[in-house]
Specification:
By secondary structure, the chain is mostly beta strands. The protein has 2 helices and 10 strands. It has 2 domains: 1-33; 35-180, Nucleoside Triphosphate Pyrophosphohydrolase. The protein has helices at residues 80-92, 170-180, and strands at 14-16, 20-22, 29-31, 35-45, 51-58, 67-68, 71-73, 109-120, 123-135, 151-157. The strands form 2 sheets. Strands 4, 5, 6, 7, 8, 9 and 10 form a 7-stranded mixed β-sheet that branches. Strands 1-2-3 form a 3-stranded antiparallel β-sheet, with no helix packed on it.
């Protein structure tokens, strides 16, 4: 990531312990901390007690063409739930309704969190992916206005239709399995 120290331009900068860049010439230390990211399993109830899960088809690398959940990186100044809500709106054009008397936190249920590595332009970003669920009765494709370029398509899948090899990231596969209580 760094060939030269950003503080003194020394070439002696090194990446130590898999998390910090250190410069012995001037003492500069940069911690390459884990970034926060979110994902949401949006469940659409179906007749006879079944459900479909909303998946997005990635329109760009990494993992172009693979399945993903709505969500993304948490921006500076945001909490995880604010970032998740923003990402859902940006990617799908649909804003989950917030019933009167509830907050954003009240519409999402935490599933779990998993580590992930997000390879972007040859830089591996370590992330802590927080996964939530949301029930959206009646949600369908016509309610969505996908973000051009980033999202190629949408798929509503029954649990038995999910091919885990088609899911973009290991953390997302783990979250879907945890939500469905599948080993």
């Amino acid at each position: 990531m760094f060939n030269y120290c950003p503080a003194c331009a020394s070439e002696k900068i090194s990446f130590a312990d898999g998390r910090a860049f250190r410069c012995p010439a001037c003492g500069f230390v940069y911690y390459h901390n884990t970034a926060s990211a979110t994902g949401c399993i949006i469940s659409v109830p179906q007749p006879a007690g079944t459900e479909k899960i909303l998946f997005l088809v990635r329109g760009h690398e990494p993992a172009k063409g693979k399945l993903d959940l709505p969500g993304g990186f948490v921006d500076p100044g945001e909490g995880a739930i604010e970032g998740l809500y923003r990402e859902i709106k940006e990617e799908t054009g649909w804003a989950p309704p917030v019933p009167e008397g509830k907050t954003l936190a009240g519409i999402f249920t935490l599933i779990d969190s998993f580590p992930n590595v997000y390879p972007y332009k040859n830089i591996p970003y370590n992330t802590c992916d927080l996964f939530f669920s949301l029930c959206a009765p009646g949600l369908c494709g016509k309610d969505l206005h996908l973000q051009g370029g980033e999202i190629a398509a949408v798929r509503f899948l029954k649990p038995e239709e999910i091919n885990y090899d088609e899911i973009a990231f290991d953390s997302t596969r783990r979250a879907v399995r945890a939500y469905l209580r599948v080993d």
